[in-house]
Hints:
Blueprint (H helix, E strand, L loop, with lengths): L4 E3 L10 H8 L12 E6 L15 H12 L4 E6 L11 E8 L7 E8 L4 H10 L15 E6 L6 H15 L8 E6 L11 E4 L3 E3 L4 H9 L4 H7 E4 L6 H13 L7 E11 L2 E9 L6 E16 L9 E15 L9
Parallel strand pairs: 1-13, 2-3, 6-7
Antiparallel strand pairs: 2-4, 4-5, 6-8, 8-9, 9-10, 11-12, 12-13, 13-14
Amino acid sequence: MSERIAVVSEGPATGPRCAESTRVAGLEPVASVSGVSGMLLVEWPLPWPRDAGEIEALAPVVQRISALAGKGAEYRLQLVTPAMGAPDPAARRVVRYTRSSGAFHRFESTEEVVAADQVVDAAVALLDWPASPEPCAGAEAVPVDVLVCGHGSRDVCCGSMGTALARKLGGRGRGAERVRVWRTSHLGGHRFAPTAAFLPTGQVWGHLDVDVAERVIAETLSEAGIRRHFRGTLGISSGATQVVEREALCAVGWSWARCRREVEAIREVDRAVWQVRMVFEDLSGRHHGLVTAELRHDGEVAIPACRGVGQAAAYPLWRVDDFRVDSDLPSVRLSG
């Protein structure tokens, strides 16, 4: 395999921001998301430190999340500013999103609204609640939470571009659509700012603007748009499987996000080639299918830190050599 490496030149401290560099390089943001068991959203006033775990008052929450990680449940703590347009600004919300059990479908939510001095206790209590119930069989509408990274003390791109996007989206009068827009702490992938997670689907998107975000919410973004902006899905394991997730979304369409799906097998043929099998079924449970793909690393792109300061980050370029979707296979079944 011929290695091709595209390098964006580093500049002085007044040089381009990292998010601008990835745009110029034409870098697709796919596979820049790590899978999680759940997310804990905690309304917390600004300013935020670089790391949410540095807030002394939240130490019991951080300790509980660490204990869950020791049992194999990986939760992300996301600080959020009050949802724009929230009816009661004095109240504080704590929301736990937990990955649907078995084959991934979506993240199930549990929410508490409490006084400011009860936020920490409510957060710990939510983490200690039993696992989320089984996903509902129907395709009923559920509220959409849009978490836009605007963590300025962590990264200047998210702090400026992400915050601006959150304000624009939050001011669009979305009450009837059951959409809440939150400015949140570090989501990862700041080099693809503005970036946001959309729940309950768990999809994460980068290089966003208002138009793209609204098309994601409405599930009308084109295949070309999906390829330019899709980072991955939080309910799917990392790396090659995220690339397959994108290819399936492009091939099947937006109904893919409402399918139950699980990675049946992933095999690293060598250090640069992966074979992936993913089983899926629609929400009725009557239609089953199989996605198979072979992927390989095809070089990398080196992107400097913001304004040319710091070390470059290398991002792999993915090539899909063989991709296939087989639908309506009676013999194919999810494992659970």
